[in-house]
Amino acid sequence: MAPPLPSQRSPSPSQPSGRSEVSDLKLQLRQLAGSRAPGADDSKRDLFKRVISYMTVGIDVSSAFSEMVMCSATSDIVLKKMCYLYVGNYARCNPDLALLTINFLQKDCRDEDPMIRGLALRSLCSLRVPNLVEYLVAPLAAGLKDGSPYVRTVAAMGVLKLYHISAATCFDSDFPATLKSLMLSDPDAQVVANCLHALQEIWNLEANNPEEASREREALLSKLVIFYLLNRIKEFNEWAQCLVLEIVSKYIPADSNEIFDIMNLLEDRLQHANGAVVLATIKVFLHLTMSMTDVHQQVYERIKAPLLTLVGSGSSEQSYAVLSHLHLLVMRAPMLFSTDYKHFYCQFSEPSYVKKLKLEMLTAIANESNTYEIVTELCEYAGNVDVPIARESIRAVGKIALQQYDVNAIVDRLLQFLEMEKDYVTAETLVLVKDLLRKYPQWSHDCIAVVGNISSKNVQEPKAKAAHIWMLGEYSQDMLDAPYILESLVENWDDEHAPEVRLHLLTAVMKCFFRRPPETQKALGAALAAGLADSHQDVHDRALFYYRLLQYDVSVAERVVNPPKQAVSVFADTQSSEIKDRIFDEFNTLSVVYQKPSYMFTDKEHRGPFEFSEELGNLSLGAESADNAVPAQRYEENDLLLSTSEKEENGGPPNNGSPVSAYSAPSDYYGSSISVNSQTQPETAISIPGLSAYTSPATLAIDDLLGLGVPSAPAPPTLKLNPKAVLDPGTFQRKWGQLAISLSQECSMSPQGIAALTAPQALIRHMQGHSIQCIASGGQSPNFKFFFFAQKLDGLSAFFLVECIINSSSGKTQIKVKADDGSASEAFSAMFQSALSKFGAP
């Protein structure tokens, strides 16, 4: 059989077909190097373009370095630019080749054309080769005194580049003093701006002379410099104006007259077409008048119009950035924007992130004078095709109702949402109606009349179902079918996957039982039995609590579950005032757009749970000494892939003999039987149905009343863990990347556990006592992150991997479980949460 014919692909014009083409380029460049024939520059341009295109796509054409340098001897500025681009690219990674460029760059720095002088000086400073620093000093000194503004502009930035290469050379040549003199005397505004930027960065980075650096930073903020820059601010471009305004915002005026002088000088900057300049000017106004409470309203009124104008002009992204700043001001002074509410109406063409921000602002500025118009507009959004915006609009109506005194019309609007027969509208409305009833109990009759017509089968979202169940329990005396609806929900207990729903169902059945005992007796018994057998720790504990409360005293149980309630006056804010103040201090930065202070997304130790990456290498053990830590296992230094701050040594097997508290769950996941010693009834041994024989008459009476019976409790999980499990970081990392998340849950941590979590090591030691090892941890209060692992004790070497994120301020814990044996994930998660719930217990 004949061999296949070679492919007949034509070479791409942007890529060489082989080494021969690069060699041909070198040959052609060498032939044109000294040529002054007509058309030679055009031929060089074509060759230079080919070289640059190869270099751009990543092909190594450094072998043509000498030929390119030889061809740079021309007055054609286009050729000069391409040659400088080529030289700057290869000189950094090939310092030896950079020596070849010094002569012709220094020669070009003395060229008659200022454009060539500037380009050559910029290229010379961009080589950034420490060995060539001595060749930069003379051209930079000449450039700072050059008659061309362009060359002086380049030279000012060249001084900054020199500082980054060799700070000592920069100071020895007295360049900072030259820049300062040039900044205060140069007639060109761009030169002044570049000098200011270079000086600011140099003195902010200077660490060898902290006293001098501090003195010079103060000099940049002196009255002489500030007013000099303000008087020339109209000459600067937008970038330079923002730089000047940022420095002015840090200036501390001597008195109020000086403050008003600065504001008068910047008055026209509020009408600037560039949004960045306007925001920077507003920041100056706000910072200058921070302590002048008597002029706050005037300042807000003055800056309001430019911001509202900027919102309606430009792209959606720019509008969002401006809206974020406007949102910050609205939250601080909503009354000043109450008459401008129509500016925050949503437009059909706006993206959802802009609409969401506008809805928050409409909620904030609503008051007695504009509530009707705002609520009417928000109700129109409830039928929006954009479901998230429709949800947000319904929430906005509810928030307005919670902050107003006259809510008659708003409640009617909310109840009308329940008649729209849209699942998401019904779900959001139910949650809001629950909050309304907590604050305005007098509206219960009207609300319950409508809520009673909603079928529980039509409510699927966990939060909405929990709200519906809460109303069934709280107002069961007014809803005829409440016991029967709750009973049907209890019968479908296993179909409720959300722990929140099951928790509310337990409480609602208890409340209904005390109001309508005969109709709810059976449902309560079934709910308690199902709750005691539930794998979720919180549900299990609440069912056990209710059961033992009923055993102790039914009247006490009624006072606990159905106490006299007072209307909720204020709902908790999701963001602390301290954080809001920090964001306000960082006006005109990304902090306003992210709605969080900069330390939350810049400093590693302050990052929240959302900032943790999946890369384990970013985590490390805390700074606590290895002597005080209980290690999981011993690693050799070469085997440790995680970035740990210390090497731990094995101090023996984990301690599994931790003391058992007097109050424990009825079924222990480690397989041991538990009993409870009651302080009020020491002579009675109380146990849980299905686990042991009943000896207490009170227990038998309650079980008979609720229909629990002696048998029927399921056996406790049989999962057992290997107390000496070992897993190296490399294997952990590989498994974490390969396995899918088999379980993801959120639970609450006990107050005792939060108080005990002062450092990651405290929890690490506790979990090791439960055969759960920690392989990496990170963060500090209030945000901690841990990676745990455990191994089944069945000889199959099945591992469980856990990512645990704890926020000690909210008490919330997020758990992700990955497992070799996915069928055991539920049991392991219950065991993990059980161990976590005992952390900090006495």
Automatic annotation (TrEMBL):
**Key word Transport present in the record?**
yes
The residue ranges flagged as biased composition, category Low complexity, are: 7-20
For this UniProt record, give its keywords in alphabetical order, as a comma-separated list: Membrane, Protein transport, Transport
Spell out the residue ranges making up region: Disordered: 1-23, 645-664
Which GO terms fall under molecular function for this chain's record?
Answer: clathrin binding
Grouped into one coarse class, the protein's main location is membrane
Q: So which residues are the signal peptide here?
A: none
What is the documented function of this protein?
Subunit of clathrin-associated adaptor protein complex that plays a role in protein sorting in the late-Golgi/trans-Golgi network (TGN) and/or endosomes. The AP complexes mediate both the recruitment of clathrin to membranes and the recognition of sorting signals within the cytosolic tails of transmembrane cargo molecules.
Q: Quote the protein name from its UniProt record.
A: Beta-adaptin-like protein
Question: Could you tell me which species this protein originates from?
Answer: Phoenix dactylifera (Date palm)
